[in-house]
Amino acid sequence: xxxxxxxxxxxxxxxxxxxxxxxxxxxxxxxxxxxxxxxxxxxxxxxxxxxxxxxxxxxxxxxxxxxxxxxxxxxxxxxxxxxxxxxxxxxxxxxxxxxxxxxxxxxxxxxxxxxxxxxxxxxxxxxxxxxxxxxxxxxxxxxxxxxxxxxxxxxxxxxxxxxxxxxxxxxxxxxxxxxxxxxxxxxxxxxxxxxxxxxxxxxxxxxxxxxxxxxxxxxxxxxxxxxxxxxxxxxxxxxxxxxxxxxxxxxxxxxxxxxxxxxxxxxxxxxxxxxxxxxxxxxxxxxxxxxxxxxxxxxxxxxxxxxxxxxxxxxxxxxxxxxxxxxxxxxxxxxxxxxxxxxxxxxxxxxxxxxxxxxxxxxxxxxxxxxxxxxxxxxxxxxxxxxxxxxxxxxxxxxxxxxxxxxxxxxxxxxxxxxxxxxxxxxxxxxxxxxxxxxxxxxxxxxxxxxxxxxxxxxxxxxxxxxxxxxxxxxxxxxxxxxxxxxxxxxxxxxxxxxxxxxxxxxxxxxxxxxxxxxxxxxxxxxxxxxxxxxxxxxxxxxxxxxxxxxxxxxxxxxxxxxxxxxxxxxxxxxxxxxxxxxxxxxxxxxxxxxxxxxxxxxxxxxxxxxxxxxxxxxxxxxxxxxxxxxxxxxxxxxxxxxxxxxxxxxxxxxxxxxxxxxxxxxxxxxxxxxxxxxxxxxxxxxxxxxxxxxxxxxxxx
Length: 702
Description:
Blueprint: H1 3-20, E1 42-43, E2 51-52, E3 59-64, H2 65-70, H3 76-81, E4 86-90, E5 99-103, E6 111-115, E7 118-119, E8 138-145, H4 149-152, E9 159-165, E10 174-182, E11 186-198, E12 201-212, E13 221-233, E14 239-252, E15 265-267, E16 270-273, E17 283-300, E18 303-324, E19 327-348, E20 354-374, E21 386-406, E22 409-420, E23 424-435, E24 441-452, H5 456-460, E25 464-467, E26 470-472, E27 481-494, E28 499-511, E29 514-518, E30 523-528, E31 531-546, E32 549-568, E33 575-582, E34 589-598, E35 603-612, E36 615-621, E37 629-635, E38 638-649, E39 653-660, E40 668-675, E41 682-688, E42 693-701
Parallel strand pairs: 6-9, 26-30
Antiparallel strand pairs: 1-2, 3-8, 4-5, 6-7, 8-9, 10-11, 10-42, 11-12, 12-13, 13-14, 14-17, 15-16, 17-18, 18-19, 19-20, 20-21, 21-22, 22-23, 23-24, 24-27, 25-26, 27-28, 28-31, 29-30, 31-32, 32-33, 32-34, 34-35, 35-38, 36-37, 38-39, 39-42, 40-41
């Protein structure tokens, strides 16, 4: 599927309102922002049923469409990074860099991200690239922190992020078209349109296209996406929705920024790197599509059901070049993931205050990796073609009982039985307790077991030799990660819900954490760490709106430690031993703050400040066997400031100005190695975050 798909969707979004729109059918959008952080707000994904916030034992983050629109974030990753307990990471913040969400210090594959119930986590990597999800498609975001393995199986160890996309609204036609331009030659056009067309049948369509040169050489991005949601609504008796999306991306992969003073390097007249990027030649592309059919009904007060069927296809292509023995070589690789899933659950309420959720889920994974080596001119070497395939499946059966004998207390208990084709069976219990001493007070406690299976990449990635004793290879002997996540949370609303306070203490532990690392020979392989655990707390507040101002402040403290294999040089014959140290890339402190001003003149202004403390990275280094050692490198702490101004004019027009990293702070997000081909020196270098950027857009909406 190519660019014409995007263009057809874009023009449909323009054309349909022109055919169907009439003044009598339209109603004004309600632009008033009601406080959302209340004990009575309804959350869907925490229990797979509709529950009020005060009835959910987990710590929650809930954001609606207006929160998204008012934010100064330019991507979903940045948007969530401003929230309590969440760290957002990307390898260099260039155009096509994947954006991963880390909840309470967990790795990116410890967060399951869903769009309308279908997981967008890459099966082969385990990580969800939330940068691919367009912001204009989002109606609601629900983040549930703590172990989610009971309801969602493997990968929901730190929490879940559920994206609910926009759907049509009765008696209203939605239409919005936007165009914008910014620094780094960035432009974006987008369209969204939704309506009911035949009685109870409606649709919502979105389309986006954006391009950027990126803030470094070889960091360009071309992105386009289209999504469609079809709905058939018959009230509580029956709700059927069919959602599908398609995303296509082409991007450069610049790598780390070489150390200062690095000179340009050529092989046979081809420039390989310069003083800004590790690679001027590496490229990548992605094609993703998802489809999900959901049927749900609350047929009676005591019985409801939900059926879900989904399909995912993800294709990733990498074109990589490297220097070996003075020659320019390379390889191409294609990784394809197909996932078929089906889920059903029923919610029974046998008597007042009690409910029982019963459900079952099946997923089938097909994984394929193809590769071919390249010669100095970039020509494929047919004898080197490889193909590796694998299939996995998993079945989960779960139940969860809830009982509230009175308005002051509620208990929750459940268990999931997971049967994985590679690793066998796991039983995953979870327990919760909620105390509501007052109407707007909730004291919550949860304790649950979590489970994370190795990905097909971890297990089956074929051996790649990059020359000079360097390369990658999977590890079929890996064990799944297993552990527990516990937390205690207090939530309080005051002053008519205009002041919301939340605080949590959490502890999680994990055995057999999976981490890719240099095995000491130059090859990167996944390995199981002995242990991985953390203690921490998080506090946050939302104040307002008072006098057109709303203030958000939150702070997270994290003490995470991992016990990994390191080489012991204190003995006559160096060997690997287990040593504990601070967890890799784990910041101790996260501080975020934001102010939003919504004037009576249809002007909305917001400023967001984010602080991330130092992070540690470890690398095995040696000049000879005796000197072999593990060295720690530190990423410096940093601040960023983002701004956004929205001005509504003439009822339908919106003018927006956005500035990210206003103070143009320099910071690195990850470390890796760089080899200077002129001097022969290998050094550690960082992936730099983006500098200051501006983006101006004009939108027209009904």
